[in-house]
Specification:
The structure is a single chain. The chain is α/β, with parallel strands linked by helices and about 240 residues long. It has 9 helices and 9 strands. The protein is globular. It binds adenosine-5-diphosphoribose.
Length: about 240
Amino acid sequence: MNSVKSIVVLTGAGISAESGIKTFRADDGLWENHRVEDVATPEAFERDPWLVQKFYNERRRPLLCYQERESEVKYNPAHKALAKLEAQFDGDFLLITQNIDNLHEQGGSINIKHMHGEVLKMRCKSTNTVFDCFHDIEVADLCDCCGEPNNLRPHIVWFGEMPLYMDEIASAISSCDLFISIGTSGNVYPAAGFVQMANQAGARTLEINLEESLVASNFDQAIYGKAGEVLPAWVEEFLIGQRKK
Ligand code: APR
């Protein structure tokens, strides 16, 4: 591979699978025993805010550290490998994740865009102010900015809502020369279309996944296996190759 100056990485649920977080499209079609329409749409939140808050409270809790105790769910070698790539790569690096967990941050990544939001944040429905959230949210909790009850929502991009940071993401992909997609099935757009944007920009494209994604044919190269096993090896080899350039 020629010397690389700018890398964009896209991650999905597969990178957190080895940390014990379930992916979305398991065989039963359910996500943590819920239908997506019941917990991950604005309509679901209007209809039953208690169910939706409870669902995200349960997703948030295992990521929290309590005083001396470490979080129940921790980063795995794939998250760590991306942090190492970012730290040691001598060029521009952007990590785009569809994941709402904080495992990339736990693993040491810095330049991250959570395009589908973050479960450790909440948002005021009136002002869109975003707050850190390291506890359960109850429907009647008072909002920190407007003081109103029933006004806080998880800072999550639900189905039917616009993903975050799209301008920055488009700009980074259109100027990258290596695009790597890890642990995502290619079912959900716009993320599934990023590989085509990268191809149009003339970047090399690499898919790392357990199996072929729905957009696998758009990549120049693929490595199939568990991200926690194949990604650290790929990062080592890539960094050695770059040092020789
Ligand atoms: N290593 C690498 N890949 C894995 C691993 C692993 N250990 N385990 C599973 N995978 C792969 C699966 O084979 C699958 O292709 O990760 C992919 C996970 O796909 P999805 O469950 O569809 O998750 P994702 O692509 O992130 O979903 C995108 O859909 O529901 C929405 O907003 C939600 O961000 C999510 C979006």
